[in-house]
Amino acid sequence: MGKTASMGAISTQTHDTTSLQPAGRRPTRRSWWRSRSLKGIGYTTPTAVIVVVLFLAPLVLVFWMALNRWPLLGSPTLNAPDNYTQIPDNPLFVQAIRFTLKYTVIITIVLLLIALGLALLVQERRRGVGFLRTIYLLPSGVGFAAAALLFYGLYSSEIGPLDGILRSLHIIDKPFSFTGTPNAALFSTIALVIWRFAGFQMLILLVGLQSIPSELYEAARVDGATRWQTFRRVTLPLLRPTLALLLVVSVSGSLLAFDQFFILTQGQPDNSTLTMVMVIYREAFFRFNLGGAAALSVVVLLVLVALNALQLRILRRND
Amino acid sequence: MKTSNASRAGFYTTGTALAILFLFPLLWSGWSSIKGQPGSSQASGYGFGNYAYLTHYGEGVGTYLINSAAVAAMTVLGTLVVSALGGYGFARFDFPGKNLLFLATLSILMVPYATILIPLYVLLDRLGLQNSLIGLSLVFIMFQLPFALFMMRNSFEAVPRELEEAALVDGCTTLTALRRVLLRAVRPGLVTVGLFAFLTSWNDFFAPLILLSDAKKFTMPVAVYSMQQRTFGAIDYGALEAGVMVMAIPCLLLFILLQRHYVRGFMTGALRG
């Protein structure tokens, strides 16, 4: 009712302005559409301006920068394809690729397992469950850089409490450096990332768990399935889309890891915890080579787009 | 039904032990920011010496807080305006290039942060917006846009058309209908979008690290990071944890207050894929 009335109102209005045209109806409707689409363009212009100026333009620029010797100060000169051909000669980047992949595999698996454990623990409604969920989710409210700085103090030998706790539990008997060896640094950072992100992944998994119809659990119970069997045959298969989603998010996030290592380990010891993005940052702002940094970013971009496309394809096939 | 006492005890023991593990870093950080520590500004006893030190550190924590608040305010406001107008446009109007623009906006998610920030560093310089809080806010608005636009488009689509058509019959322009009638209907969406815009702009580290070069312009995360970097071997850890608390407390309060919106935002983000 309201719809026809409003359309009538608008078309009479536009009819007046176009009354010189002989065929009354069609131009009227066309101009109604034109005014609608002009309005649509008007409303989305701010979006378009931001996307074009702050996203598409820099995206084009990064490809152009990669073709130039582009110092931090001074004017660029064309040197294609040097920035790309020099990548394999950059030992830090090659090393960073290996480390980033290793980190991505470990954190993705560990985080997912812990988050799944948390979700299974708090999925049933009982007293205090809401409170526990909030506490597990609380670290997600802290900024990632703030969390990394927090753990920097937590791990320090100066005021960090962990050393004392571990010693009083007789787990260690001499001072332990949490970022002293490559492995210690990696696993200390992993602990930070788990603390910060496990609650978030738990939340996503809880939604997945709640979308599983309770009749299926009933049926499994009637059939006399054990808890483990129910988990294997009912929960896990139906949770697969959610697990796959978290996998995609976690893999692309971890491949771009920066804050956690930049703040907590600073790539040390011996550059063993440098990630790809840290090498890009270093190339641009320590070696003042923006062209080289741009070429590295293009490589990372292409790898990520390819990986996302591949993962989406696998996800689609599973659906 | 069949839950035995033993399994219930197991649940509460595990749940509480994990809760302690998750709370411990935050509690420790708060505690060590007020606890006396030889060599720090709070040399002994308990007190706010470390926080007092922050007011003298660098440009003073006040400057950094004002910078952070300014960036957060501009980002939240900008994101809300752009995504409300854009969401309305996408939900209610057809125009050439609509799908292309929507796809281009969503593809912001596909592009790594570093890939876009390196050229933005150059581009903002040409636009005279380098080392500028306005430039930084614009970058944050761009990064928020895929989520915000998606959220607002869905919010507007969920509003019955009759609501605005009644207003249009009354002779309102579409903009008046949007302002007077529709904005109220999509308020939950706006709160979620605003909350995420605030959290991102308040907490983000990488963008201000690259785009801000003058210590007077630093936002909180970069300022506290510079405390960690300042000297060799003589970091004031007490003050560092005080800085962490100053950053974290507003977020934790907002988080607890708006938890429902926070969770809903995550869900939308997750479903979007």
Query: What does the average pLDDT of chain B come to?
Result: 85
Span of the ends, CA to CA of chain A: 41 Å
Task: Write down the Rg of chain B.
Answer: 23 Å
CATH topology of chain B: MetI-like fold
CATH class of the largest domain in chain A: Mainly Alpha
Q: Give the number of domains of chain A.
A: 2
Tertiary shape of chain B: globular
Measured by residues with Cβ under 8 Å of the partner chain's Cβ, the largest interface is:
A-B, 91 and 90 residues
Compute the number of structural domains of chain B. Answer: 1
Q: CATH homologous superfamily of the largest domain in chain A?
A: MetI-like
Number of helices of chain B: 13
Description:
Chain A is mainly alpha-helical. Chain A has 13 helices and two strands, in the order ααββααααααααααα. Chain A has helices at residues 2-17, 25-65, 82-85, 91-121, 129-137, 144-155, 162-168, 182-210, 214-222, 227-255, 259-264, 276-285, 290-318, and strands at residues 68-69, 77-78. In chain A, helix 5 (129-137) packs across helix 8 and helix 12 runs antiparallel to helix 13 (290-318). Chain A folds into two domains: 2-51, no CATH class; 84-318, Orthogonal Bundle (MetI-like fold), CATH 1.10.3720.10. Mean pLDDT of chain A is 83; it is low at 1-25. The two termini of chain A are 41 Å apart. In chain A, 73% of the residues lie in helices and 1% in strands. The longest helix of chain A is centred in the first third of the chain and has 41 residues, at 25-65. With 273 residues, chain B is mainly α. Chain B has one domain (49-272): Orthogonal Bundle (MetI-like fold), CATH 1.10.3720.10. Chain B contains 13 helices and no strands. The longest helix of chain B has 32 residues, at 61-92. Chain B starts with a helix and ends with a helix. Classes of the chains: A mainly alpha (319), B mainly alpha (273). Chains A and B meet through helix 1, helix 2, helix 5, helix 6 and helix 8 of A and helix 1, helix 3, helix 4, helix 5 and helix 6 of B.
